[in-house]
UniProtKB/TrEMBL annotation:
Belongs to the HAD-like hydrolase superfamily. CbbY/CbbZ/Gph/YieH family. It comes from the Bacteria. Its cofactor is Mg(2+). SUPFAM superfamilies: HAD-like. Binds 2 magnesium ions per subunit. Keywords: Magnesium, Metal-binding. The active site is at D7, D9. GO terms for biological process: carbohydrate metabolic process. It comes from [Clostridium] cellulosi. The record marks S112, K143 as: Important for catalytic activity and assists the phosphoryl transfer reaction to Asp8 by balancing charge and orienting the reacting groups. This is Beta-phosphoglucomutase.
Length: 213
């Protein structure tokens, strides 16, 4: 294994609370029921697909223009919330993991479907830590499509089969396997049958890389 590609939200940085608050802000305005159970269904998928899940509980029908307005309304609020991010939002043991991988000569990248990924990395002081960054502004297809991970591997100049993906969402695990990469599941992704490895502590990724190298 030559490289590790990380999803961002829920793997490197915790923005779950902010995502929840932004979608709930939109849903409350529209009178649509929304809770954490619904929010958990939105992990790893695009804004548009997330909106469609939320609208399942709406008594109102929305046309395409109205849907785009809802997405914009949610994202504008979310971006404002991101201004409050700091290094404290980096998840436990992440910095130690990244240091160990770099010490071992392993390339590291972010492969995120979020169009706000670069702002998140900037606010948490991680912008210059990774060898490559791919976000939602660079891809046409969201996970479970493998595009984001394949582009990250290309930026790292590594073959997909030499890359490990660390994901917290089932859609991300599926994308990793479709890209012919080793998939490591953390958080909710530990429930994915497709995950090659499932870890409780992200530091275990170091052992996996060394085992496979």
């Amino acid at each position: 294994m030559k490289a590790v590609i990380f999803d961002l939200d829920g793997v490197i940085v915790s923005t779950d609370e902010l995502q929840y608050r932004a979608w709930k802000h939109m849903a409350d305005r529209e009178g649509i029921p929304f809770n954490w159970e619904i929010n958990n269904r939105l992990r790893g998928i695009s804004r548009r697909d997330s909106l469609e899940i939320i609208l399942e509980n709406s008594s109102k029908t929305y046309d395409e223009q109205q849907k785009m307005e809802l997405i914009t309304f949610k994202n504008d609020y979310y971006v404002k919330l991101l201004d409050g991010l700091t290094q404290d939002n980096i998840l436990p043991n992440v910095m130690e993991l990244l240091k160990k991988l770099k010490s071992d000569g392993v390339k590291i990248a972010v492969g995120s479907g979020s169009k706000n990924a670069k702002k998140i990395l900037d606010k948490t002081g991680l912008s210059n830590v990774f060898d490559a960054i791919v976000d939602g502004t660079e891809i046409k297809h969201s996970k479970p499509d493998p595009e984001v991970f394949l582009l990250a591997a290309a930026k790292l100049h590594e073959k997909p089969e030499n890359c490990i993906v660390v994901e917290d969402a089932k859609a991300g695990i599926q994308a990793a396997k479709m890209a012919n990469m080793i998939a490591v599941g953390v958080s909710d992704a530990r429930n994915s049958e497709l995950a090659d490895y499932k870890v409780d502590d992200i530091l275990e990724v170091v052992d996996i890389v060394r085992e496979l190298s």
